[in-house]
Amino acid sequence: MHVVRKRTAGFLVAAVILVTALTMVSRRTRPPVLPPDATHGDLSGNEDCAPCHAEGAAIPLSRGHPPKDDCLHCHLKAK
Questions:
Q1: Are 20 and 57 in the same domain?
Q2: pLDDT tens digits, one per residue of 44-66
Q3: Are residues 26 and 57 in the same domain?
Q4: Are 34 and 77 in contact (CB under 8 A)?
Q5: pTM over 0.70, yes/no
């Protein structure tokens, strides 16, 4: 009887760990891909992003945005 309870408990622990891991992975978000338009199509470096996305510009980045000097590291060009 104890063996069955240990197996059941082990299975339940494994199931909880698996569900937790899958939930955490599914909640991660990926940075948006750069729009496939003329403005973003010919970017050559991070300095090309500042005119539109710097603080006070037309489309500023949010306050919680990660470091703002390595745009093309996270945001990939559309294929």
A1: no
A2: 888 899 899 988 999 999 888 88
A3: no
A4: yes
A5: no
Query: Mean pLDDT across the chain, nearest whole number?
Result: 84
Task: Name the residue range of residue 10's domain.
Answer: 1-30
Note whether 2 and 26 are same-domain residues: yes
- If one counts the domains in the chain, the total is 2
Query: 52: which residues sit within 8 A by CB, 6+ positions away?
Result: 39, 58, 59
The CA distance from 51 to 26, in Å, is 34
